[in-house]
Specification:
- Six copies of one chain form a homohexamer.
- By secondary structure, the first copy, chain A, is of the alpha/beta class.
- The first copy, chain A, has a single domain, classed as Ureohydrolase domain (Arginase, Chain A), CATH 3.40.800.
- In chain A, β9, α7 and β10 form a beta-alpha-beta unit.
- The longest helix of chain A has 20 residues.
- At the A-D interface, α7 and α8 of A face loops of D.
- The structure holds manganese (II) ion (12 copies).
- One manganese (II) ion binds next to loops of chain F.
- Chains A, B, C, D, E, F: Belongs to the arginase family. Agmatinase subfamily.
């Protein structure tokens, strides 16, 4: 159980869901242990947040456990998406713990945002990788089938096809050196889904991830992005954390989840406005 | 390069092939790093084997590198099998380094043995696992479509369906406590493929594997089995080694490969007799 | 959740309770992570046990989670004991996951056995250690205040005072070399509590423990002891597992818990007979 | 022995004392190994400091070894304080290696400073934690019973009660983003005790600590704080280093100790002026 | 094989050569595993570089494997230098993977540059260390016998003799805080050899090295230095990476090698102009 | 300090000396950390030995610390030998902690035994290795220049030249399977030096060593050999322990040292009789 998730699932405003999918990682596997690593290394965090003057335990967060993964990613996403849509229908914000980045697709499908903001070293805009269109290297491309626009913050690598796709109007790439400026100007006109691929951070900050990519974001840049974007959000995830470091990646992941909840809750007394996009059919 | 593999691929009597498939591991992933871990930890072994009075470097072993894996196991097996069949057609014995146990199927398909002898904690006799018939938990079942009989040495766990299947005539289960006796009586009447799933060993001996299963074989039992079976063999593999220990599993895996080659070479001056089953079509 | 604990707490025949007490470990701390490490590394075990022809998921095992620990061991034991006594009053067998060995006292107090059988490298018969009578090094001494006799299986070290105490009639010491013989003659005339201090095993088998002591039991000796003693038991624990190895100690601990349940359940269709010693007051 | 501590204890100007207390760590234990880890990872540092043109071996530093810890923190602090007071009475500056942060209390008691400056992620201003007033989470609160004022540099988390206490006049909180500014204005009007809780650093810089807290100080910020404060100091410690990373935390801890000694020695030809507060009774 | 080294050795413009010398490391050994660690952790990097619009696989890079090391450093350097000179004579740029820093001498000898630019925490200007003039702590001093000038970027420690030597005209020391300024003014009037001692980086960035020295360069500073200097270079190395972290040092080392190749290739359509200093005798 | 070494150096009957030489290890380096790892992992052992009814702290053991190593092995051996000879001249038994196996030569030179008994996987009978006659792979050959006979217990690998040398009269090879028998018949007619190369043990028992060699001795076989040989000994060492496992190799090494002292002390009330071979010149 993620520390401080004292709410009942049905009464919750936020619901943590673990999604330990780990089938397409190309380099270092282990993200299947990500959800439990994040839960473990969030243990020492204080309940109280001084900046927003809130207690995590009073913000209505529940932990629904993991949706057990198997090796058919597409089928898994469908199933996971259903679980997350139930969360949305219960007027709660899903907080997804990956697992590989692929699982963000389920989060997006369930929350139906206008914009996908993603902290990531990689563009993840491939149409397929090794013949697999559900590879973690394709997730932002898949997500663009659902959302109106994608912003990849901290991106620093990709294939020519990905960079070409990134030049289209519905994609914004914010390289690490432009993050502060982008944050200063950030303004959202519709519901956002925020996805934190932990490899957006520099490997010194988050070595426990499948594909370390040097020259990344600092932990405070990650934090400031989460704080800035959270108020506009209908869904959130932290993905690509594995168990191959001494807890740095998981500690950061768990902290960013808490920063998300504090910032989101502080900005609205009520459940997030989803623009009517994710209503239960028949509602 | 596996240490001591000084032969040219074309002139070799034994060819090491890495098969870093790592898609169906249910618990701890990382067997994709198995081939290189085994190569690394075989570094300190002496070239000379006192028991058989042979030099490894004089036994005609080549290292053909890895057959890069992707996440479609069935397609990969077909491709890998082709690579291994080329080895067989060149009158050499393939020495496969996994990767997950699934890759043994390709080894068997390429060498077409009569008998599949396998050191393994698990029966691996499932028809499918989580809907996947090419899971490592099904490999011996798949292999039984090709061979006449399977012997699972060191087996100590399985599902009821697996145990039921194991009672049929074409399967022999040798529990850890019966290994010495079985070895004493071992006699082969046809070509054998020997597969070493490193989890056949006790976790104290080989902790670096995907699914540790206590109460397993000692390293000397593993060695004695390899020595006894090798002379009858047309193919060999070591699988399920990962990078999650301090080198114990890889060190054992590399040593058993060498024991295989020493024992096999000592028993025959020429290339192994494959009973005419794996001839190149048209030869 | 310990894998396979599908029963509801109230309807369960066996209840797993984590007790992450970690205050008196003299050398390598970390046994606070023991319960979750054991749960994690029990993941890959098959549900079905061939020897007893039983499914773990059909044996009525629940996981009640952890009883959060703090640094007042004596107060914690009182609280923990209450939790475990509830389990007993519900006619279930408590399966305690340590945590340091001290927690066994709570298990004993809750189950009120006649005999305490303990696998341990150490006598744990000190009256106090560094002024602390609730140190893990004193647990068997404390337990002797409650039970009629203690048997320390695999014991190989202690202070002179401990060895002297061990010579009294109510203590039996079974050194590692005598375990097979002792098991052959084991017969119980009253309810037993079985405690597995994982350091009873040789460090090669269970390096992840607070005070490794070489020349210990093999994993099969541990298993055979658990199988032999389990039928007589009213309570069970695995203690002193920490997170400082590659999973070997936790994997063994989780396996022994399963062996306990299989053996105990196979020996009795009903809940264990506790000789009327642990009845709820007023029942 | 800390590298370069070539002075005799009696003739020393600085005395290293290890204090491996490790009883109240709430999350990851192991700080008992802190003193030896710091000694080990200080091995490769050059004797010569270019900035101050001094040799560490010529600055009169002795290593008095460890004061062995046991689990009664309060009694231990009394004993440790006596050892450190002896150092002070011998006109030397104690350099304490923790161990948990609690040990700073003994350092403060022995040196009787006017001001307690502390690098820490946490306020450590609780009155008690889990009923324990000698928890590491209470150390700055305890210290405030002895000193006139406390400054917590790098603080970023605490309970509401801690933040409330922090608003009183005798406490200054310097958040990470204000450290440079605070350092620029730092001026001391009385003896200072400087305590480095290594978790003041960002987890990327010092992952080997009991309670990682993201968004912390960089190593150069830590260094600049030590350099600025050292000249005013009568005592120093580095605490909360454990053995759970690859040496980063220990390497930083040992380096900061050296920076302290270089800066302190460079600022005064003689032993530090303690304002007459810590004189031996009867002197 | 370093990922993406698809060129044939004879036709290559760049040749990777591993030099696993590991005999003089004073603190943490293991740099013998550096070449293979770097190759492994370079696996996930994209082939395409967006900044320079180039594919690594199209830049003519070959991997010639390792030059096996033994414990006579001086003899090894002679041999290694021969191997590297062959690379130079074939009009290719050697890319050396250490091994200890000593191996840079062979790179310099083979490429005969005018200037030696080196990222390093240490001056490496000793005449000998423990009586050994071929210690890694002497490499820049040795190199100064061959080149006209040396620049040590990121240097922050050394002995008085080293600092004195550094004040001579042929040595420039760029402390970490002056790197940006130095880069802005960098201009080369002759061939340069660029050596990356990974300990130039802060230990948070590259913990896996023999002698961590806090307060070092960030990964982007390292990158910017490589990008700026590469166009002037006739040779390059990454040294002092070992296997004692979670891949951070190796990942950075492999990335910097790629940055070097991208920047070097982008600046010249042809092989580097070596100023006629390294011509094959008789050419 | 090795735990329990309470004697003063001058008054001691046994003197621990660390010899962290680590220059010729061919595979995994790190034995320089061996002495401190052994001291650390010997911490939890009881002072009292039940078998011999002795307290370690009463047996007169001192720890003289380490003889700092440098990279000229031959010069180091001369220096180390002098230190050890001082121990012998003070009528104490040296207990050497390696460091690579080479250091045994210094122990032998200082104690001048008739017989060298060595637990080792390797024959170590090479005349030179990579041109180095002081490689750890040559130590038993070097020792044979000093002693009358060598017995290599647990040996299982070597070059043809080594096996040939081993057939001469002054060498006895006891393979792992013959150890029990050899121990039963062991009888010494002159002073013995006992060297424990920890790689004599199976890698499951002692993974933390430079060159793991499977199929080795169990920990109890190692112990029984030490107990049997100790009474005849004038010197003892434990070598080839490094820091690359979770403490298993060091824990075993420290335990065997204690077993040696208990067994040696129990067999003689006085200092060992060295047959007059190691008298101080002029005595
Ligand atoms: Mn991604
Ligand atoms: Mn990514
Ligand atoms: Mn298998
Ligand atoms: Mn298996
Ligand atoms: Mn115990
Ligand atoms: Mn114990
Ligand atoms: Mn603190
Ligand atoms: Mn703190
Ligand atoms: Mn250097
Ligand atoms: Mn350096
Ligand atoms: Mn040896
Ligand atoms: Mn050896």
């Amino acid at each position: 159980m993620f520390p401080g998730t004292t709410a009942e699932r049905d009464a919750a405003d936020y619901v943590v869901v673990g999604a330990p999918l780990d089938v397409s990682t190309t380099f270092q596997p282990g993200t299947r242990f990500g959800p439990d690593e994040i839960r473990k290394f969030a243990e020492p965090y204080d309940d109280y947040d001084h900046r927003t003057d809130q207690f995590f335990t009073e913000l209505g967060v529940a932990d629904a456990g993991d949706v057990r993964a198997w090796d058919d990613a597409e089928a898994y996403l469908t199933f996971l998406s259903g679980t997350l849509r139930d969360v949305v229908w219960d007027d709660a914000v899903p907080l997804l713990l990956g697992g590989e980045h692929t699982v963000s697709y389920a989060g997006v499908e369930a929350t139906d945002p206008k914009t996908f903001v993603c902290l990531d070293a990689h563009l993840d805009l491939r149409t397929e990788y090794d013949g697999n269109e559900w590879s973690h290297a394709c997730v932002t491309r898949r997500v663009l089938d659902v959302v109106d626009e994608a912003v990849v913050v901290g991106a620093r690598t990709g294939s020519p096809e990905e960079w070409e796709r990134a030049e289209e109007e519905d994609v914004t790439v914010v390289p690490p050196e432009s993050v502060r400026e982008w944050l200063a100007g950030f303004d959202s006109d519709g519901p956002v889904y925020l996805s934190v691929d932990i490899d957006g951070a520099d490997p010194s900050v988050a070595p426990g991830t499948g594909t370390m990519e040097p020259f990344g974001l600092s932990s405070t840049q990650m934090r400031d992005a989460v704080r800035a974007v959270a108020p506009a959000c209908v869904g959130f995830d932290v993905v690509e954390v594995n168990d191959r470091d001494d807890g740095q990646a998981a500690a950061l992941g768990g902290k960013l989840l808490r920063e998300f909840v504090y910032a989101h809750a502080a900005s609205s007394g009520s459940a997030p406005d989803d623009g009517g996009r994710a209503d239960r059919p028949g509602d």
